[in-house]
Automatic annotation (TrEMBL):
Transmembrane segments: none
UniProt GO MF annotations: protein-disulfide reductase activity
Top-rank taxon, per record: Bacteria
InterPro entries for this protein: DCC1-like, DCC_oxidoreductase
Stated name of the protein: DUF393 domain-containing protein
Amino acid sequence: MTAIILFDGECNFCDASVQFIIARDPKGYFQFAALQSDIGDELKKKHRISEKLDGVIVIENDAVYDSSDAALFICKHLKGLWKVFYIFKVIPKRIREALYKTFAKNRYKMFGKKDNCMIPSPEIRNRFL
C-alpha cells in the first residue's frame, strides 16, 4: 500500500519537505505529485479536491487528508521520532488549521518560490508520478 502526497511544486519549503520525507521513508510508502502537474490535476478531479486547496494533500486509497491532517498523517508514517508529532492530533482541528493556514499563506515570503517544479534525481524518480 502507498499514499500519494500532492505538494506545491513551486514552493521552496515544499520541495525541501519532499526531500525530508524521502529521507525518512526508506520503504517508499509515499509517492509524490506536484499540485501543478497533469497528474496532480487528475488526482484532484478524481478525488473531488477543491482547487482552493494549495497546501499539502495526502491521498491514501479513497481517503483524502489536507492541511494539518495531511502533515500529521505524514509524520505518523515517517521513520524515527517524527511519529511522536502525531500526538498533536489531540489539538482541536480549528486551532491546528489556523496555525497551518497562517504558515501556508506566508511560505513564499519566508522560503521563496521557484519558477519550475523540481526534477527528481534518477535514484528517486520512480517515487514521482
